[in-house]
Amino acid sequence: MKIVSKILLITIFIATSTFTVATIIVYPFTDSVKEERFNVLIKELRCPKCQNNNLADSNSSLSEAIKDKVYEKINADLTDEEIISYLKDRYGDFISYRPPVKPSTWLIWYGPFVILLVGGFLIFRFVSARQKEKPITPVSGASESSKKLLEQWGKEAIDDSSSKEGDPQ
User: Fold this and answer.
1) Of 157, 117, 150, 149, nearest to 133 (Cα)?
2) Rounded to 5 degrees, what angle do the CA atoms 44, 58, 101 make?
């Protein structure tokens, strides 16, 4: 009985999985220029629901509605700038992958460079502070000759590093 129920379950699963329907929406244009403009626009514009998908890659109902609106506006002979302006007024700057540079988007545009500069400065400070630390002192159980040798090497290392700092090379 268990085998029959497993076979029945597998058969139902296979039968229902083959009835998947994919909807492809076709936008008919009168000329290829309008079609090309449409394709470029839906690749440039971001789906507000899907976050990081453009309209061309998104299957959400919102992206379908926006694509329909873009199609209508192109057929109404509006320019790309007018269409983008309309969508930005309706959905905000987020609809564009290239938001304008203005005070509300400064963090997006300049934030990475500020973080990079601050990180570089902190690394520089850390490295320079480590170089200024006192030299290594010899172990208390070391012989006098070992201590003198270590002191001599320490002085040579300091002399070498100070002479390298002055050389422009």
Assistant:
1) 157
2) 30
Q: What is the pLDDT of residues 76-87, one digit of tens each?
A: 999 999 999 999
Cβ atoms 54, 42 nearer than 8 A: yes
φ/ψ (deg, to 5) at 146: -65, -40
CA distances from 62 to 47, 66, 157 (A): 8, 6, 67
> What's the whole-model pTM score?
0.55
Model pLDDT for residues 27-40, shown as the tens digit of each residue:
888 899 999 999 99
Token couple for 98:
């290239």
Question: How far is it, in rounded angstroms, from Cα 162 to Cα 169?
Answer: 14
CA distance 4 to 9: 9
